[in-house]
Every structure is written in C-alpha cells, then in structure tokens.
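Archive entry. Fields below.
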Amino acid sequence: MNLRLIGCNFRSAAVDLREQLAFDAAKQERAVNELAARFGCEVVLLSTCNRVELTTAKPAGGRPFDRDLCAEFLSEVHGVAPERIAPLLYDHADGAAVRHLFRVASSLDSLVLGEGQIAGQVKQSFEAARRLGATGPLLNALFPFALRTAKRVRTETGITKGHVSVSSVAVDYVKQVFDTFADKTVLVIGAGKMGRLTLTHLKELKLGSILVTNRSPERAIETATACAGLAVPWDQLDDALVKADIVLSTTGAGEPIVTAKRYAERVAPRRTGTQVILDIAVPRDFDPGIHDGDRVCVFNIDDLSRVKEQTLSVRRRAIPLAEAIVESELKRFADDWTRRGHGPVIGKLTGEVDKLRTEVLTQLLPRLNGKLTDEDRKQIEGAFRLFQNKLLHGPIAALQEAGKDGQSGTLLESLKKLFRLE
Amino acid sequence: MSFPPADFRETPLENVTQACFGLSYFLAFGLEFAVLLRPGKALRLAGLVAGVAGLVAHTIYLGFHTPNLAAPGASLLAVAWVLAVFTWYGTLHHSRRAWGIYGWPFVLAILATARLAAIGEQTPAILQAPAWLTAERFWGGFHGLLVLASAVGAGVGCLASVMYLVQADRLRRKVAPLGGPKHLSLERLEQMNRRAVNVAFPLLTVGLLLGVVLLRQGHDVLDHWWNLKVLGTVGLWLVFLVLLYLRYGSRVSGRRLAALTIAAFVLMLLTLAAAHPFAEGGSP
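PREDICTED_STRUCTURE:
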C-alpha cells in the first residue's frame, strides 16, 4: 500500500511544542503543495489543537516519507530543531496507518472521548488537500472510508452520548425543567469565567431577559453590557431572585450568599413556578438545602461534574464496540484496495483470452461456411465463451482469495508470467 | 342511519372482545418498554402498530356495543378509548420521550376498572341503538357526554401529574440527564395538567347541574341524594374547586397539585364505576 501516517498528538508532545507545530490555513496549503511536489506523494495534513498528522501515500520505489524526513520538513516549516521533533513523532505504516486514521476520525484517539469535532476536521483536511490536487487514488479511497467509519461509530455506539462540559450539562438540566425560554429571565450573580461560558450556552436557548448583579457595580455593568443584559444593584439581589427563572451564580464569595433561611423568608413566598439555580461557584453561593426538585432545583459544580464523569463512563463502555467497527472497516478497506489493485491485471487477462477466442473463431467459422445455420454459429460462439469463462474462473477466484489473505503478490506475478501479461 | 350498518352486524367483527384490544394495548406497552431498554425504529414501529390494532379493535367493539353511559363498565370503556387515542398520538408525537410507558398502563388500568365495575351490574351496558339520540333522551345523553368529557380531562390531568411526579423525583435526586428515558419538562407537564383541569371543571359543572335538573324532572332528588354516583360527583366537583383554588389562589407546590389531580381522577373513576340513580327507574 505504501501508506505512512506520521505525527504527534497530546499524548506524545507537550502543548508548547504542539503550539509551535500547528498550521494555520495558509501555512497548511503551502506545506501540502511543497510536500506533494518535493516527495512526489499524495498528502493530507491534519492540524488541530491536539494533533498534527501527515498522511502520505507514495508509489513503490524511492525513499519512503519516514519519521526523519517528516521531522526535517516540520523543522523547516516551523523553525523548530528536528532533534526536538523526531522523538515525539509516531510513525504508522500501511494497515497500522489506516487503523490510526480510522480511530482518530471516530474520536477514539481524542482527548475527550467521543467529541464531535474531529470527524469534521479530518474531512476539512482531506477536502483541502483534494482541492490542491495533492490526493490520489489511495487517499481518495482512504479518507471517505475513514469518515464512513466515524459515522458508523457515532450512530451505532453510544460514544457521543450526553455532554461532557460543565456548561453543557447545566443547560441539559435547565431543559429538564423548562420548555420555552423566550419568556424566561436569567439572573447572573458574579462574573466568573465558567459563568460567562455557561451563559453563552444558555443564550443559545434564546432567553427572554438577562439580569446581572455583582458586589462591584462597575463589573455588573461591564458584564451586563457584554451579554446585552441589565445591571441590578447588589442590594436588590432578593428582588432579582424573585423575578429570575434561572439563576447562574459564579461569585468568589467565601461563604454562601443565599442561605436556606434567607431563601425561605425572602424569595420562596413571593415566587411562582419552578426556579433553576446553577451554582458553579467554589465555595458554593447557595445553600444546597434549598433544593427540592419541584419549586427550586439547585445544581452545583459537584452535581455537574458528576454528570460529566457519568457521561464519560457511558462513552467508555462503547469503546469495545467502536474498536470492533474500526477493525471491520479496516478489513473492508484492505479488501477493497486489493480488489482495485487486481483490477488492471484481471482486465488484461480477460482481454488477452478474449482476443485468442476471437482469433480461433475467426479461423474456424469460415472453414465450416455453408454447413452451419445461424443457430449453429450462435451455439459454437456460446460454447467458446463458456469455455473461456470456466478457464478464467479458477485463476481470478484464486487471486481474489489470496488478496483477502494479503498474499496475492506471488500469484499476481505468476499469472503475469503464465499468461504473458507484461 | 345506524352504526354499524345493518349488513355489517352479522360479521366476524362482532366477535371482537375487550380482551382483543386489552392485549393489543398491553403489547404496545411492552414494546414501548423494550424501546427504552434497546432503542430502535423497528420496535417503535411495532409498538405503534400494536397501539393502532388495539384502537381499531376498541372502536369496532364500541361500534357494535353502543355504550350506555349510565352503565359503569361501558362509560369507562368510552373514557379508555379517548385516552388510548391520546396515548397513541402522544407516542407518535413525542417519539423520543417516555410517553407510552405511562399512557398504556393508564389505559389498561381504566379497562380493568371497567371490567370490575361491570361484574354484577344490573344496568344494560349496551344501548338499543340509537335510542339515546332521540329527543326524550337527548338531555340525558348530553349530561352523560359532558361527564364523560370531564372524565377524559381529569384523565389527561392525571397522566400529566404522574409524569410530573416522576420528573420532579428525578430532579430531586439529580439524575443525570442522559440516564434513563427522556421526560417532558416540568413546565410542559404542569401546563398540560392545568389545561386539562381548566377544561374538565366547567364540563363537570354543567354536566352536574344538568344531572340535578334531570333528577328533579323524573324523580325526587331527595330519594337519590345518597346515591354513590351523585355523592361522588359532588365530591369530585368540590375536589376540582379546591384544585383550582390551590393553583390560582395559593402558592402550592407542583407536587401537591399533581397528587391532588391524581386523587381527583381516582374519585372520578369510582364515581363512574358506581351505579347510576336512573338504573332502577329506567335509563337517561
């Protein structure tokens, strides 16, 4: 097959080196063109925040594109010493390269198991290389297979089930309580990083209004402006809590800002409907005793992290099935590729024997001219065709069977010699 | 024009029994349960087909045995039919939600109650069609239909309440959103419950008033005030009134409202299962 996959990922290289080896779109285009031209090979370059991988396919003969050449090339492009790069690179050939690519596309090799972006990134890398004319028969066959494998893994296993970020899990909980969001009010308490991230996710639900409060009025105004909300003075926190359907709390306070007593006295009696409190502050801002699962649902950072772990655990259970799919697709690809490799030889063989049959018939039929009816001619031609098919069936079947075992090379050479197909 | 037409009356369809649709609904429930354990289109489709089969058998049964709404078993069979249609539609509409696993047992429970209520019952369960639509029986039939419609409303409210209690319990225990079947949101279930009760209450009120008027015309009201059905209906009306007061006049938790709605429906079932005051003196 002469296929190589060389690169580094979050396991083999530290983040600072990965940052140095990353390609932006323009750099990636130049690198693909340069590699294809310099080494005369098919190339696809995958560059994400967690990996840089070069998949190359080269016709037989010549020095293969190996780890050292790759390190030299990356060094040339990024200005990092090759000695620093080479030890961190993994180098997979043929079947192992196919397996690695299929596992990467299926997110089995991702930092977050089952993450949904990698298949799209593999597809984009392949499309970019194809547009540049850097792909050929092997990579044009291989990458669609990888994407199909990724799709099978995604749909036939539970590997993408649930969410694995705290902010996404928080939104999942909110959706368990509310059905419509255009009439809902969100109160943001504090202005932590995690809070802003969660608010970004919540805003995708098309919320009615956003209130922001903070001990520092300036920071409240700043955050409110950033999220198109309304700043509320800190001393009106209880009133804001009464109005809010969803509360997102991320202060850095050293002790709870809303105790069970305060909530029961000042908020609960004035409220109707269920309230969801996402308390992602550490230490917690709301007393967990407020939670009753009916009128108030309080989810703190521990609850959300626990769900995240449960989700990952569910995804991990899908790994054996996903690996089995990768193996079965790997075998299918190998069979398919071998069949494609035999195609020209089988075509030539059939053509040669066809030519012989026609020659013999051309000599025979004129000699029998006048003695044969049209029906007789058809019978004779049919018999010769049948004889040809039966004669070729054995060698072709043997070649295909040997191809499945990966041992068709010798047989292929023998056939070429026996039938003088060179 | 009668249903079914005269030439269909002597057909094998006449042999459709309560067991036919009861078993079909049970199968639909089983398949719905199987979908939760092992999601798949084939199982889901099979569940929908079983539900349709049950509905067809149920409809044929009601068509051949026009129910006398004054007869306990028959009125419950009619309520079960409407709720079966509601459950089947919900299963189709909320394809990714746990709906059928609540709806089908609910329908089966009503059918079982209908079966129990029919044992030893004196009132003929089948009307001599289509006598109930004639002028002299119109108001009696209308009264029956109103009570039946309010029972359906209470049934929908009860179903929503059961789902609400389950969902609230999942939230109380902070069950991971990816674990187990997906449920409708608390907000949606509360809305469903509220609308069902809001519709059921006026229907029950009008039905009850009509019943009192009919009792006064044909019988002495005082002779029948102690009748279980009359007492139950009045009690039910009061429960509905309390339910509406608690919802709109007082800030009671959703769990309590759900529990009260379930209690109201159980009372409704008992009322429908009780003997009608007209049973001794004729039929409405």
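CURATOR_NOTE: The first helix of chain A runs from residue 15 to 21.
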